[in-house]
Amino acid sequence: MLRYSSPLTQVVIVGLICFLTSGMFNALNGMGGGGQLNTEVAANANVALYTCFAVGGLFAGPIVNKIGPSLAMALGGLTYALYSGSLLYYNHQQQDGFPIASGAILGLGAALLWTGQGAIMLSYPSESNKGEFIGIFWVIFNLGGVIGSIIPLALNWNSTAGSVNDGTYIGFIILMGLGSLMSLFLLSPHKVTRDDGQPVIIQQFPSWKEEITGVLKIFLDWKMLALFPMFIASNWFYAYQFNGVNAFYFNVRTRAFNSLWYWTAQILAAFFFGKLLDWSKFGRKSRGILGISYITIILMGAWIGGLFFQLTYKREDPNVNMDLYNPSYFPRIILFIVYGLYDAVYQCFAYWIMGALTNDTNVLARYAGYYKAVQSAGGAISWRIDAVGTSYLVQLIICWALLAISIPFAFLVVLKIKQTNYDSKSIKEKVAATNNSEISA
Q1: Could you list the residue ranges that cross the membrane (predicted)?
Q2: 342-373 pLDDT tens trace
Q3: 356 half-sphere exposure, CB direction, 13 A CA radius
Q4: Nearest residue to 28 via CA among 176, 139, 158
């Protein structure tokens, strides 16, 4: 029976929070254009979102370390509901100011939510099951994308229109609000204990000056700099896949159907890839090499297939609006599924590398904030590239090049992964300090 104070229980709760907030956002965004016929509005809102996310991510680590993951994720969750409300407003008023402003606010809120998530997911498990915990989180989180895709699919099944109806947005607002509320049920890190009785490694919030200094030191850490290409590429392809492929090529119910299978593929990929990264038959460095080899194969296969598909149409062409009953539809949904597979393994591996470098909760909060900041900077640039009307073929080439460049740099970091970080003197001192504070309490 699971203890409420166990790391697994807390990670499951975090997964459910992200299921109801970011998972629903992914389903909405995955249909292209936020479910709207005019994809330019959502593209500009995403530029504002990811720009603020990039800035907020740099400072979210210190804030999460100060106020705690629970409150940080609750505040972040509310901004997702606000963004869905802005798209409901746009459905009636056709004014893009509110969606763009809401996108900017969501960027700041998402930085808090994802930094809190990253700190919990990477620091709560032991070294032997970090891959499993990442996989479990990714499965639950992407169930949000699956269920969130079923909502517009069901509500718009008999529609051949280009945008979703009001009920879709209202459903998302309610679910995102519930996700924010659920964040308040997370335990404080010092109350979480592993099954062997060891506490999660935490330390008291030092000072704002020391926290900011800790963030700045990340930019002097060669491992984090080497991971920069992987981090910036990890969300870059969403603008192309969701707007350049899904929104441009398919009608609204088919877009929702594609999104459903995109996130379902992520669930399966994350589950099995997490098991691979924890495979005790191999040492941790060997598992990292095995993981990055698998990523390289699926990445290249996906984008070769994507290139052949992209050569069949141009941005200047009229929207195809293909329906899922079209005889030519099947190979296109297979490509979209493969896109989902590599997205999951690529991002799971980025988290796993960070978790393999340290067990310190505060350091991992900074790593997670840095990761989301760089990732979001890439997202802002890619959505802007799409918003100004860049050729879809050019977008595909940029995505593919960035992903390919990231592999050798990530491989250098994998080669420096130690079998364990538990022998670190600083870690032992923090464990002792945590135990002493519990005794004195």
Answers
A1: 7-27, 47-64, 71-92, 98-122, 134-155, 167-187, 222-240, 260-277, 289-313, 333-357, 392-415
A2: 999 999 999 999 999 988 877 888 898 899 89
A3: 27
A4: 176
